[in-house]
Specification:
The complex is a heterodimer of chains A (209) and B (166). Chain A is mostly helical. Chain A is built from six helices and three strands. Chain A has a three-stranded parallel sheet. In chain A, helix 4 links the parallel strand 2 and strand 3. In chain A, helix 1 runs antiparallel to helix 5. Chain B is an alpha/beta fold. Helices cover 19% and strands 25% of the residues of chain B. Chain B has a five-stranded mixed sheet. In chain B, a hairpin with a 2-residue loop joins strand 1 and strand 2. Chain B is elongated and about 70 Å long. The relative contact order of chain B is 0.14. The chains are: A mainly alpha (209), B alpha/beta (166). The interface between A and B is medium-sized, with 41 and 26 residues.
Chain lengths: 209, 166
């Protein structure tokens, strides 16, 4: 009569799982992308979000207007040198765990500007670490959905427990140490670095997380 | 629409070294770079050209029969009479400088910044002469004909960022 409602609910239907699997399942089913489009690929990204292709089927339909609430950055479009530091700043503002899809030929490797462009970053992986590359000019919505599924596969493999005595590359990430946010910005004459003892050359060069 | 003849006659009588030509109903006026601000002031104040449609530039490096290197193009319009006028002014290499038209048309501000960014033309009297499209650290003016077509900023010059094991 005064029993809690949950009492006896799972008598015959007990589900057993690991915390890791449950958390990964929850994460991969609610990947929230950032509302962030740079060029024509963004049109195709919007088509992916619309009803015909419906990215919501994968739980990734909540395009957040703030990087603080986003898990996935779909870099959709040509990244210019001037935009590179902004892209990096947006990436730094996203909470961990975060993922990046390089969508389209321009972000994969410079695209049509690969050889002759004086203003285009030759691949967004010079600016932020990329998880999945989706080629195409622009990629079909199906390709972007495929890229999203590869992100979900990647999340599925995540380990929550710290690996004992993990050395080498991923250490800072695993121990929760914030990696250095300051990143020199790629430039047509090489990376541009502000001198350590001086203020940066220009205000946008200073990248803070 | 073709410019009324009294406008071009008035310009020719007031300014000495001015060349007026017409092609397929479009009027073009070539002025000395030093006279540009006076001509533009007269066009705006007395002849009613109240709209600066565009400011752009052409680099005539190695162009046949070209006397000057840079040719500035100003497109004007009269919003009441629908007249349209092209004004050209030529500047040369060591110090390509021309008067800014921001005092006459506020809209010239960003257009002149773009011409400075792409061609390196200095606009005297411009309130905010910064690059507009390219990053501030950029050292060249890429729409000049002597800007190298390749060899700068190719992908293999940069280290790729990879994500650590996570």
């Amino acid at each position: 009569m005064t029993q809690p409602w949950i009492e006896g609910r799972f008598e015959e239907n007990v589900i057993t799982t690991t915390v890791e699997q449950a958390v990964n399942w929850a994460r991969q089913s609610s990947v929230w992308p950032m509302t962030f489009g740079l060029a024509c690929c963004a049109i195709e990204m919007m088509a992916t979000g619309a009803s015909r292709y419906d990215i919501d089927r994968f739980g990734a339909g909540a395009f957040r207007a703030s990087p603080r609430q986003a898990d996935l950055m779909i870099v959709a479009g040509t990244v210019t040198y001037k935009m590179a530091s902004r892209v990096r700043r947006l990436y730094n503002q996203m909470p961990d765990p975060k993922f990046v899809i390089a969508m389209g030929a321009c972000t994969v490797g410079g695209g049509p500007y690969f050889k002759w462009g004086y203003h285009v970053v030759k691949g967004v992986d010079l600016v932020v670490p990329v998880d999945v590359y989706v080629p195409g000019c622009p990629p079909r919505p199906e390709s972007l959905l495929e890229g999203l599924m590869r992100i979900q596969d990647k999340i599925k493999g995540h380990r929550i427990a710290k690996r004992a005595a993990a050395g080498g590359s991923g250490r800072a990430f695993q121990q929760g140490i914030k990696v250095d946010d300051e990143l020199p910005v790629p430039h047509h004459s090489g990376y541009v670095e502000a001198p350590a003892d001086q203020t940066p050359l220009t205000s946008h060069q200073k990248i803070t997380g | 629409m073709t410019v009324r003849p009294e406008v071009t006659v008035a310009l020719e009588s007031r300014f000495r070294d001015i060349k007026v030509s017409e092609f397929r109903g479009r009027t073009r006026v070539v002025v000395e770079a030093a006279q540009l601000l006076d001509v533009m002031t007269s066009l705006r104040e007395t002849h009613g050209f109240d709209l600066l449609v565009d400011v752009t530039c052409v680099d005539y490096l190695n162009y046949r029969d070209a006397a000057n290197r840079f040719g500035l193009v100003y497109l004007l319009a009269n919003a009441t009479s629908a007249e349209r006028l092209t004004v050209r002014a030529f500047v040369d290499d060591p110090d390509p400088t021309v008067a800014s038209l921001v005092p006459l048309w506020e809209g010239a501000n960003w257009m002149e910044r773009e011409v400075w960014d792409m061609f390196g033309i200095q606009f005297e009297g411009h309130p905010d002469m910064r690059r507009i499209l390219l990053p501030d650290e950029f050292t060249a003016h890429p729409l000049r004909k002597d800007y190298p077509l390749q060899g700068r900023g190719e992908r293999h010059n940069f280290p790729v960022l990879a994500r650590g094991e996570g």
